[in-house]
Amino acid sequence: MLAEIKGLNEECGIFGVWNHPAAANITYYGLHSLQHRGQEGAGIVSTDGEVLRGHRNLGLLADVFKHGELDGLKGTGAIGHVRYATAGGKSLGNVQPFLFHFQESSLALCHNGNLINASSLRAELEKQGAIFQTSSDTEVLAHLIKRSQTGDFIQDLKVALNRVKGGFAYMLLTEKQMIAALDPNGFRPLSIGRIGDSYVIASETCAFETVGAEFVRDVEPGELVIIDDDGLHIDTFTKEVKHSICSMEYIYFARPDSNIAGINVHSARKRSGKRLAQEAFVEADVVTGVPDSSISAAIGYAEEAGLPYELGLIKNRYVARTFIEPSQELREQGVRMKLSAVRGVVQGKRVVMIDDSIVRGTTSKRIVSLLREAGAKEVHVRIASPPLAYPCFYGIDIQTRNELIAANHSVDEICQIIGADSLTYLSEDGLVQAIGKPYPNEPYGGLCMAYFNGDYPTDLYDYEADYLASLIEQKKLK
């Protein structure tokens, strides 16, 4: 994926296992399957029933655990995390899982998503005397748990979970149990698997294949999954739920071999490509997709259009990440480092270039230029999602409209800016139908489509004022 260049990043991946003699190692391999969800830091905490031990650091998973650190993580239970920062800075202090030691017990905690009332909760907690060690919104939950004081940990957790708002998939580990919780909208995917008598929980089902686990069920919105030596227990912390699965998981973030709410990601992307060909056919000679997340859609488009699919763009997997480059010039150079156009495929051809989305437009412009430099006669861009015109507050790091090209320009203007011969996006209805409506009786089939139409399934809490101000500013500019 070109997340590093595009500027569209999802927060994290989480994984946990209970009742396995090699818990930390299983967690390592599970996290390896989720590395695409976060490359800035990684960590694992294990329990042997008496003591919680952890290791975390900045960098890719293989670098964080390359000196035998796994050997010190003893026990039969473990949780782990790979991180991309949406809330909180890029520092070691914000790398998860967090490990808290209390007078009589310990708690490890990690989180995928973004809390939309974290700032107000943090201010409230600080007034009450809480001292925060990190800038991450994840730490808020730990303080809320300790302040509930019902005398029962699970009840304290339920109270705390009803205070936090937004998108969250939590994993918690104590000496005696592993716990998972999913927000009332189920924005982020979370699933339960099994290896014999051991249970695993992961952000994506692709991790189950890696560790040899069989799928048991998805975690539903508002659920609390408690796993201990007595087995699997399903509880709830709220009954006020509404399925709003992040549609960008199907479009862009999740691995194609994952299933979300029973729908295979590759199949959904391929159907979106087919629907795109029905809505936006163009006379051409060859179809190519932008690696990696657009390949499935490109195959679907080519099949439906009756055109050959070719590898017109090749990704170089052995270059440094480019999202940290300080200037736009260097970021654009990163596209050239990441991608190469195959002259033998595109020269003299009318090319249909399939991509999953356009964020700022700079990457699309550079890729169109690469294809033209390689001799493409025409470049027709087809996007397998609607125009991305609204920010996300639930775990994707775009939180203002100013950075979204579709919020500031018409489709014709975007086409001119990126230098394409034509540009068409998939319709909203086309996307919903292509994904397959995992929950057909709910709005948009149980999908969150806010990035495309501004229809947010929750109040925006701390972000409300800034969002409304950005809309007013947008109208002034137009």
UniProtKB/TrEMBL annotation:
Family annotation (PROSITE patterns): GATASE_TYPE_2
InterPro entries listed in its UniProt record: GATase_2_dom, Ntn_hydrolases_N, PRTase-like, PRTase_dom, PurF, PurF_N
Cofactor entry: Mg(2+)
Chain residues that bind Mg(2+): 293, 355-356
GO molecular function: amidophosphoribosyltransferase activity; magnesium ion binding
EC number(s) on file: 2.4.2.14
Keyword field contains Ion transport: no
Pfam families with a match to the protein in the record: GATase_6, Pribosyltran
Domain Glutamine amidotransferase type-2: 12-230
Enzymatic reactions: 5-phospho-beta-D-ribosylamine + L-glutamate + diphosphate = 5-phospho-alpha-D-ribose 1-diphosphate + L-glutamine + H2O
Catalytic-site annotation from UniProt: 12 (nucleophile)
Gene3D superfamilies listed in its UniProt record: 3.40.50.2020, Glutamine Phosphoribosylpyrophosphate, subunit 1, domain 1
Cofactor details (free text): Binds 1 Mg(2+) ion per subunit.
GO biological process: 'de novo' IMP biosynthetic process; purine nucleobase biosynthetic process
Keywords assigned: Glutamine amidotransferase, Glycosyltransferase, Magnesium, Metal-binding, Purine biosynthesis, Transferase
Domain of life of the native organism: Bacteria
EC class (word): transferase
Family assignment from sequence similarity: In the C-terminal section; belongs to the purine/pyrimidine phosphoribosyltransferase family.
Function statement: Catalyzes the formation of phosphoribosylamine from phosphoribosylpyrophosphate (PRPP) and glutamine.
Name used for this protein in its record: Amidophosphoribosyltransferase
Taxonomic placement: Bacteria, Bacillati, Bacillota, Bacilli, Bacillales
